[in-house]
Design brief:
With 152 residues, the chain is mainly beta. It is built from two helices and five strands. The protein has a five-stranded antiparallel β-sheet with strand order 1-4-5-3-2.
Length: 152
Amino acid sequence: MNGILARGATLAALGMIAAAPTFTPAVAKDTMGTPSGTITLTAQSADVGVGYSWGEGVLRYDHHSYKFKVSGADIAALGYSKVVSHGTVYNLKHLHDFDGTYGALAGEATLDKGLGGAVLSNTNGVRLKMDSAAKGARLAAGAQGLTFTLEN
């Protein structure tokens, strides 16, 4: 029963997600731009007031795979969770445009297991549409910034 309630709470909390800094809502695929690649990300968040997230992932772009690191912060959060996300990358014209800080208005309410999604964008016009599965116990709401850095 807790798993069902947690999934419902997570979906309700994440229903208010919008991309930043341009604040584009997650709607039809054609408004996202041109699909350029895919992304897989595993991240953890530990929070007491202000939250910190870190992790790593793989960008698949132009028939190649590129590893990257991710780190960032949440304005208001409490708890710990581990998230596995898969998604589509849009508007990536040059590999170096992937690096940067992506912003979102986000919320998470995970108790044991939860599902969610997010749309993030950076100042280079790159957008990420992510679907996530979380484990842990965490409550977060507000602005979130994640910095993605390709590894050499």
